[in-house]
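Supplementary notes (optional reading)

For those who missed the lab, this is the record we used. Protein: Pali-domain-containing protein. Length: 213 residues.
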Amino acid sequence: MALGPIHCGSFLLLSAAVLLLVATISAPVIHNISFLDITTGSSKATFGVFGYCSNIIGSDTCSERQIGYNIADVTGNLTDYTYVNNSLENVTKAFILHPIACGIAFLSFLIALCSDHLGFLFAAFVALLAFLVSLVVMIIDFVVFGLVKHEVNVHTTASADFSAAIWLVLAATIILFFSTFVVCFSCCTNRRRVRDREYQAAPMRQGRWWHRA
């Protein structure tokens, strides 16, 4: 059986939720997954949603999992560059939107998978909400990590580069954008199929009624 729009929409929503989940479990949960990598000599730091991991001269350590952390302070310890930005730590608290966007996307997937008729419309609304949350946190990601990346590359000999997690969030945001329209389209096409079946069944019911008479 060919996949209809609702199946494609459900698949897209699940894909977006998985991508956001992988980004959420970045450093310090899984230190190999990060939004930003800073490398200088044999030392390296990776930054994620709930903290960071650093390997300085062979000593591998990770921060505690927390909501909000001081990126500038970690960068200073690694590169010996004093970069003071007191607002960054407060902004990183918004990284909590990553798991929230993931949860909303997965909820939308469940609704789309189990719904019928107008339930698709509600799933599209939830998918739109997931897209908006993901869009906001994606912008925050690029602003925060982009600022740190610029400061490190301009003022130090270290190398700072975006890593996999930030691109996963970007991909998830794009997928959520398109899945919103796919699921909404499913609502329209499903209602039309129901009307067509009812229209085709009406003459048959009428014929059987006259036959019984």
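If you only remember one thing from this example: The first strand starts at residue 36 and ends at 40.
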